[in-house]
Every structure is written in structure tokens, then in C-alpha cells.
Design a protein that fits this description.
By secondary structure, the chain is α/β, with parallel strands linked by helices. 37% of the residues lie in helices and 16% in strands. Strand 8, helix 5 and strand 9 form a beta-alpha-beta unit.
Amino acid sequence: MEAMMKVLVTGSSGRIGRYVVRELVEAGHTVTGIDIARVRGGPGRSLQVDLTDAGEVYQALAASGAEAVAHMGAWANAGVAPDTRTYGDNVRGTFNVFQACADLGIVRVVSASSAQVYGLAGAPPVYVPMDEDHPVRPINCYALSKIAGEQAADYFVVNRGMTILCFRLMGIRTPEELNAQIDALVERPSEGGGLLWTRTDTRDVALACRLAVEAETVAAGVYNITGPRVALDEPSLDLVKRYCRGTEIRGDLPGFTSPLSCARAEAAFGYRPEFPWSVSKRFV
């Protein structure tokens, strides 16, 4: 991929999207952000677009001249909207983005999936370290919509020659939110297993998006993206053994390493998180 590109970011005013826009602009790329909310100010150009409207998506992509897309736009969790809308809008919006990219010849897409597909809020991991081959066990409409998005990505990769990277994001928080998140973990470590005691700075997600967009060659597929370590100052393996009954230990989990492995992302496009938040290390 060329060093300097035109990139379109969906969900550009959201928790993750605005950091992705900033990261790309600061790296010298020309960025167009689109969002269902009206975006005022901020870096790059912005358009108000409803992802469930295929015509709006197609026009925005065509007008932007995009060479790559970071698709972050979606209902961000179950319970924000009725389940039928969460599932329907997320699946329709993702398909519309992929279809428009395919028709316009935009090959490289980074698409936000979620580690919620692993169902950790309902059951502990089957094994650790957790790689992308871990069984998916969706327990809500949001996770189900993300699995559908990954399946749509596979379809466009096979049938339209695209390179779509689906990021299974876990524990994403803005820098301003993380101190309170860590304090809550300290108070109630037994409740931390749903996110494997790991929190991810949004700036690291933005970094992963930029690296994936810029990579010369990279394989399509799913990639875990999370913080590099557990936020508690207690070894990861000790936490898993104490709170994850029945979880199989299949490989090394040294020190405070997050039980969700990002080794595939590191090997594919050099993802190494820069903000390892913990009880003893804070960044704001």
C-alpha cells in the first residue's frame, strides 16, 4: 500500500472512530469521516451518512476517492437500541460498506468486529491464551451481528478479491475512562473475567487500524485487538486459575500478559500496543 492514502472512516464521531481519524490524519493521510451524527470540527472532512442507506454509503465512498476504509460505525453494544434494530442495522450497514467498496474497487478494509463473539460474559474461556480459533459463543444480538459481519467479509474476500481484516476488539475505553475502570477492577476482580481483566486504550485501536491500512501486504481474516496486559498487578495465569473454572491452559501466559492473544496481529502488521494500562501504570 502507498504511504499516503485517501481513507474513509465510518463511525467517525464515535468512541473509536474519532481516534482512528486523528491517527490517520497525523500520519499524513487524507481522511473523510462519515457518521449518522452530524460531525462538527475535528480533523479531516466529514459527512453525515446513514450506513443502512446503500445509496448514501456508495455516494460518500465515491466522493471521497477512498483507497481504503476503516469501518467502525455500528450500534456499539446490545441494549442501546431494540435488538432487531441492533442486529439489522449493523449487518445491513456492514454489507453496504463492503458492497460499495467492491463495486468501487476499494480492496483494503479494516472492519470492527468484537471479542463479544467469544461469549466471555456468559462463560469462561475454553482455553488460554485465547487465539482467533477459539469457539464463538454469541450471547446477544450485538455479538451475533458481528459474526454475520465476519461472514460477509469472508464472502467478499472470496468472491470479490478484497482484503478485509475484521478486528475482534476487547475492552476498549478512552484514556479518560481508564482510571475508573482499573479502580473498579481492583475493588471487584471476580467480575473482571468477562474482559479477561484487560483494558484497551482507544489510541492503540487507532494505531492498529493505521498499521493494517498501511501494510504492504496483509492477509484477510479475523484479528484479536486488545491491550497487552491485565490491568491488575497479579499474574494473568493466577487470575485465570482462580476465576475461570475449567479453562484449559494450552500455552505460555507469562507475567501479566493478556489472556487474549494478539500474536496474529503483531505478526501480520506489527501491532504492538503503546499504552499498557495497569494499577501501577497510568497514562492520564
